[in-house]
Design brief:
Distance between the termini: 29 Å
CATH class: Mainly Beta
CATH architecture: 6 Propeller
Oligomer: single chain
Number of strands: 14
Strand order of the largest sheet: 3-4-5-6
Strand content: over 45%
Structural class: mainly beta
Order of helices and strands: EEEEEEEEEEEEEE
């Protein structure tokens, strides 16, 4: 993962002492922490956080036991994350929410095998989460949905993705 100025200059490696992989990095709104997926060889795609200064000692596994994490996004208050779990053994994607201190892991959306929910993003006020929904067997287009931050009141916004 790299950091750079908005004009592309001053590009440099973020946290060069971490080792392993770092992908899907997203800054917390407070600017104090980066959430990412990755890890050392053989422990790929685990949701982790690291302080903004890139200190290796600040790395924290956020959703212990969840492998193949994707698409993390911070709540506006930097207290929670939503992310997707994409199990390697079945064609489905599940959305989870977890506190930034690694407590309170909660499954929000699970449509079952051959279906999925992905790319969750928080609303600016933190009350809702938008996400896409797909049926992998039918080849149907993704649909845009919203839900409350607790996973309730799912509403389809757009049928055509």
């Amino acid at each position: 993962m790299y950091l750079m100025r908005s004009d592309g200059s001053n590009r440099h490696t973020f946290a060069p002492t971490v080792g392993g992989t770092m992908a899907s990095g997203v800054w917390s709104p407070s600017g104090a922490t980066v959430a990412y997926v990755g890890g050392l060889s053989g422990v790929q795609h685990v949701l982790r956080t690291i302080r903004a200064d890139g200190a290796k000692s600040s790395i924290r596994v956020i959703a212990s036991g969840i492998r193949v994490a994707e698409d993390p996004d911070w709540s506006p208050d930097s207290k929670r994350l939503v992310f997707v779990r994409a199990p390697e053994t079945v064609n489905k994607r599940v959305i989870y929410r977890v506190n930034a201190d690694a407590t309170g892991l909660k499954k929000l959306v699970d449509y079952g095998a051959d279906k999925g929910a992905g790319e969750p993003v928080w609303s600016p006020n933190g009350a809702q989460i938008a996400f896409d929904k797909a049926n992998y067997l039918s080849g149907a287009h993704n649909e845009l949905w919203t839900m409350n931050a607790n996973g309730a009141d799912r509403t389809r916004v757009d049928r055509n993705g």
